[in-house]
């Protein structure tokens, strides 16, 4: 029987709450589609850090490396200074495992409430491809002191032609399989060095993909175009920070952070890819059962697709979309069901085979 070894990192806040629903969905799919999932939990995150003073041991990273994929919840805790868990765990894993592509689909599923007036699902189906290991995220930065009033904080952006080329090439190939349109998103009118390098790499790759139309949009203008005319976009390729920001905007358009999934893809086969919701640990709603598990389930669907279980992936996507269609998109006091109940409903629909429009994994 086909067997996959998953590393499971629940993390903090709502991370464990939503990740458990993703695991239920995966279990239901494995039974229905005839494969086996073996999962190993790695208790990393705020509590482990507070208890041991350690983020992750090299040996643990090496054990995680041997898995077929990583299912990740979320990281971040008010008891720990900002950046420690985020940089020391999430960003460390993305970088150590060379997960160069961060794929973030923005799809409005039928029946899901969106704050964008008159937006219909047929107009909103694009993908943000975010460079995942460089840019401003690499720099530790430095503060030149001279008293607080005179302090200067430096934070450099690292952009290598090699990493950009890998991500751009991936994006062209993805566009070829989709609607054949690639948009570079940057800020080359101001960040001239990095912007020029990104544009040059795109221009150099373009002749190899003559069927793909290429476009450029500044990141500030992107924030207007994405909600107003999402149909303009198919694959958007962008750097690490811009990708982080516009993907939360994308999440809003598609119905909220509770709906937005992501895949951190290793392209060289030397380490596992990692699948996680776009959202964070949401300490404001943790422990209440308000978290929407759809983003985690849709991330698990991306995991199955990457493992080659296409039919099973589609069943997770359909089940999540069909449950979403009946719900307010973001959790909160008005939410009509507990996270666990929604997870049960999604798993049930995977077992039964739910129909939902607009799914295409
Ligand atoms: P967040 O994504 O955790 O939450 C933003 C808002 O969206 C909150 O109001 C939250 O309640 C809501 N929300 C998020 N996910 C939801 C869901 N599934 N269902 C319903 N509502 C949901 O962002 P934040 O508040 O800026 O960050 C909280 C912590 O998470 C910080 O420590 C941050 O660094 C971290 N973070 C981690 C990741 C990650 O693990 N990949 C991503 C983003 C933020
Ligand atoms: C995300 C998060 C992370 C990022 C943080 C928590 C390091 O915001 O996955 O979008 O900036 O990439
Ligand atoms: Mn983010």
UniProtKB/TrEMBL annotation:
Its EC number is 1.1.1.85. It is an enzyme of class 1 (oxidoreductase). Keywords: Manganese, Metal-binding, NAD, Oxidoreductase. Its cofactor is Mn(2+); Mg(2+). PROSITE patterns: IDH_IMDH. Gene3D superfamilies: Isopropylmalate Dehydrogenase. Residues 5-346 form the Isopropylmalate dehydrogenase-like domain. Coiled coil: none annotated. It holds the Pfam family Iso_dh. One of its GO terms (molecular function) is 3-isopropylmalate dehydrogenase activity. PANTHER family: D-MALATE DEHYDROGENASE [DECARBOXYLATING]. This is 3-isopropylmalate dehydrogenase. It comes from Arthrobacter wenxiniae.
């Amino acid at each position: 029987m086909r067997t996959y070894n998953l590393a499971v990192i629940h993390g903090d806040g709502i991370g464990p709450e939503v990740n458990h629903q993703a695991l239920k969905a995966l279990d239901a799919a494995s039974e229905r589609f005839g494969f086996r999932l073996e999962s190993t939990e790695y208790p990393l995150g705020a509590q482990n850090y507070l208890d041991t003073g350690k983020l992750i041991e090299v040996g643990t990273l090496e054990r995680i490396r041997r898995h077929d994929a990583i299912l990740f919840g979320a990281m971040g805790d008010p008891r720990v200074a900002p950046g420690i868990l985020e940089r020391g765990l999430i960003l460390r894993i993305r970088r150590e495992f060379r997960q160069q592509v961060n794929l973030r689909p923005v799809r409005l599923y039928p029946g899901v409430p969106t704050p964008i007036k008159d937006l219909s699902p047929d107009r909103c189906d694009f993908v943000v491809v975010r460079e995942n290991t460089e840019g401003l995220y690499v720099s530790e930065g430095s503060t030149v002191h001279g008293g607080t009033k005179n302090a200067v904080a430096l934070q450099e952006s690292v952009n290598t032609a090699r990493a950009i080329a890998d991500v751009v090439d991936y994006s062209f190939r993805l566009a070829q399989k989709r609607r054949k349109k690639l948009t570079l998103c940057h800020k080359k009118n101001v960040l001239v060095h990095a912007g020029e390098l990104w544009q040059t790499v795109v221009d150099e790759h373009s002749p190899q993909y003559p069927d793909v139309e290429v476009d450029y949009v500044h990141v500030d203008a992107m924030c207007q175009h994405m909600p107003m005319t999402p149909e303009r976009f198919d694959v958007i390729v962008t750097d690490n920070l811009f990708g982080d920001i516009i993907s939360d905007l994308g999440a809003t358009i598609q119905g909220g952070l509770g709906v937005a999934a992501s895949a951190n893809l290793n392209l060289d086969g030397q380490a596992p890819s990692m699948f996680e919701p776009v959202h964070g640990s949401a300490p404001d709603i943790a422990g209440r059962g308000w978290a929407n598990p759809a983003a985690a389930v849709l991330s698990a669907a991306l995991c199955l697709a990457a493992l080659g279980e296409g039919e099973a992936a589609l069943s997770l996507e359909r089940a999540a979309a069909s449950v979403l269609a009946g719900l307010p998109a973001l959790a909160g006091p008005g939410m009509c069901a507990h996270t666990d109940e929604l997870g049960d409903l999604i798993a049930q629909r995977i077992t039964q085979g739910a129909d939902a429009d607009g799914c295409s994994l």
